[in-house]
Structures are given as C-alpha cells and as structure tokens.
Amino acid sequence: MHVDVIGTIAEATTDDLLHRTVIVIDALRATSTLTTALAYGASGVVPVETVQQAKQLQQPGDLLGGERACKKIPGFDLGNSPSEYRADIVQGRRVVMTTTNGTRGIQKAQRASRVLAGSFLNARACAAAAAELQRDIAIICAGTQDVFSWEDGLCAGLIADELLRLQPVELNDLGLALLAGYRYEQKDLAAALLATSNGRRLSRIGFRDDVLFCAQCNVYDIVPMLHEGVLVPLGKIPPHRP
Amino acid sequence: MHVDVIGTIAEATTDDLLHRTVIVIDALRATSTLTTALAYGASGVVPVETVQQAKQLQQPGDLLGGERACKKIPGFDLGNSPSEYRADIVQGRRVVMTTTNGTRGIQKAQRASRVLAGSFLNARACAAAAAELQRDIAIICAGTQDVFSWEDGLCAGLIADELLRLQPVELNDLGLALLAGYRYEQKDLAAALLATSNGRRLSRIGFRDDVLFCAQCNVYDIVPMLHEGVLVPLGKIPPHRP
C-alpha cells in the first residue's frame, strides 16, 4: 500500500485523490474540533468554504461553527475551539462549519474514493479505518494559507506510524521525513505543538489550552468520514457501493 | 536570525530570496559533486540550465559535466558522480555543469544577496559561512522535478542544527520538521539516504557508492558561493560591496 503525504492543500493534485482514501489533517484545530463534536454526539458536520455557504446550508436545529483569523465568526453559535463542543450543546444536532484551512481541505478532497478527517485525537482509529478500506492513501496536511504547518506534519507522521503497525506501507519522501520528525518529538508532543507557528499564535491569543487538548493522542475511536457532503462517524454510514 | 526552509525550487518566491543568504541543497548529487570538484582544485563551476547553454558557455580548457536522467550527457567530459571529479582531471579547470534539479535551483536563487551550495559534505562550513553573512537565511531543498526529496530535507535539518550551535535562530515550520527528522536519523544517515526515492533509484542503476559518499558529514571546509555566475570557493572572492 502506497501512502503519500502532501504538505499543503494547494499541492494536492487530482491524481493524489482519485481512487484513494484521503485523510485530511488540520490538527490546530478544525479536524480536532469536528471530531470532538462527533464524539460528543453531534449527528454530523457539514464542512463548507464560506460564511455565506454556512448560512445558506443551515437548517432548523443546525448549529453554525467555525472561525476566521482563529476567532468565532459574528452570529455563529460556536467557534473553532474543541472545548465549546460539549454534549449538552451538540448532542443530536448537525453543525455547519467553516474554517480557514481544514474545511477547505475536506472540500477539495471530495473527489477521493473516501475522505476521512484525522487528528492526534483519533490517529489510531483513523489509520485502522484507512487500512481497512484497502486503497492507496493520501494524507493531506491542511497547512495554513498554503504554507506547511508542522502540527499537521507531526500528525501525519503519527498516522504513518500507526499504519506501519498494521501492515507494510511504502511512504513517499515527505512521509519518510514526517515519520522521522514525529518519532523524534513523540515523547513531548505538547511542547512540539506549542513551538509551531500556529501553536505560538494560538497561545498568544488565549487558546493555549486548545493546543494542549489537541496534542493528546488516540483519545477517540471516532473517524469522521465524508458521506454526501456531511462528515459522520464511520460506523454510521451505509457500506460503500463499488 | 530567521531561517526558512523551502521544500522545492518551485515553491521559492522572490520574497524568500531578496536580501537573504540562500543555501541551495541537491544532496544527491549536484551540490555534493560540485563541492567535490572545487575541493579537488577546480577553479570554478558554472551552473547552467540546459545542455545547449553548457556547450555555448564552454571556453577552451573548460570541462563539461552533468546529467540527464541520472546519466552522463553524450559528448560531456564528466557525469554527476563525485568520484569522477578527481584532482588529476579538474585541477585548475573550470567546469560548466547542468543537472536536472540542482543547477536549476542555483540559477533561480540568483536574486538572493548571496547564494551558497550546501551538502552533507560541507554542512558545517556552509552554516558557518551563512551565519557570518548576518542576513536571514533561506535554505532551498532542490527536490526532484518539483517534488520534495528527503535527502535534501535531511541536509537542511543538519545545516539548521549546525546554525543553532552558532547562534539563536528562528526556524519556520518546515525547518522545525526537518530538524527533528534529521535528529532522528542522524545516527545512520547512509541508511536514511538509501531509503529515499532518489537513494533507491541511484542504487538500482549502479550509483550506490555515490549515495554512501554523499552521506558523509563535514568532510570539506569548502563553501561554493555564486560570484558573477560562477560558483567559487568562498575565500576566493572579493568582499561583498553593499
């Protein structure tokens, strides 16, 4: 099984997506947050690119979530902090979500055979789900406005490491680099995340606890998978028809 | 001092170059080979993009060197293997050189304040020279046809490590990733290089010894620096006029 890691959304080509399982990572914070929403009982997360699209797609009962410049969007119910997505708020409700990088990455990946959302929080479950789908895998690091983000790369390294525990895989060169980098940093991922550009920025504006939360490995078994435009927990969608 | 590592030549923007010291790395094999040529007494290396340009720029006494698809170009004196650049062949002569990635990277970097060529063979000397120039630094991994190459990333990590021994530096996220990856692999760089895409390809076509040669750290004090279109050893050019 080939596993190619791609450094930013912009670099992902159609060839990287077609007939593959794609794992999109925006570890700080979109994919961590939307996985948390599903873990606490949200019925689905609708990833959209713009604030206007979010408002247009909102149905009665839906929550609006997301960020611009790391902050909650005026008029939205929720920001992009996993701590906001509590069971008493999201249980049984759909969240329409727009973020600067992560939801855009998921949108772009829609041509793939299957699209999963990965983070430190669900890395092992995500690797197991991708392995089970038995196709070549592309791991897309969302990055930040088309620049590589180390937190996404670290998470890609962790997912590659989990995949290697399950079966032989052939990694592309960026995958080899990020696997090695992850293994060097794995003893203190919180420190590594706080040292990244986004980790420093989030700490500066009051979201240090989010960085620490997102640095936890394998706390959820939930794997968000895109199904008809909505991210739902993997077990809850009908089997794929070839 | 800011140190930004850039993953491929294609990604380098004018902003990455202007007013900076640029270090171009094509560890397998162009920058290793041209540094070897200078270490064994070549008077200069002229990096050019095309075979035709190489032939046009050749002056009496000049050698033609380089590769296409990893192999020597028909009619050229030398290929892209460091072992060919022996003292009895290159001493006192200029080499006009064209390779698929490395010499193109050096060409593109010409807008920088200073352009150096880095490899494992001269990493420490290269870091020291760049630190002494006292400008922000961009380390450009040449990559392979606009795709990231791990051997160049490993070398960028090594040079970042050497820079950090000399002074405080602020690394961009790719720099942090490659520094961590280098530190994980540093105990057996030869194995790491043999596992890269280019390492495997070169081994397959008979150049395994080149990969092992290029994996040696800090064996030369030579730092190739671009001066009026020619790479010459750093000590041999007149001081920079501001």
From TrEMBL, chains A, B:
<dbReference type="InterPro" id="IPR036702">
    <property type="entry name" value="ComB-like_sf"/>
</dbReference>
<protein>
    <recommendedName>
        <fullName>Probable 2-phosphosulfolactate phosphatase</fullName>
        <ecNumber>3.1.3.71</ecNumber>
    </recommendedName>
</protein>
<dbReference type="InterPro" id="IPR005238">
    <property type="entry name" value="ComB-like"/>
</dbReference>
<dbReference type="Pfam" id="PF04029">
    <property type="entry name" value="2-ph_phosp"/>
</dbReference>
<keyword id="KW-0460">Magnesium</keyword>
<keyword id="KW-0378">Hydrolase</keyword>
<comment type="similarity">
    <text>Belongs to the ComB family.</text>
</comment>
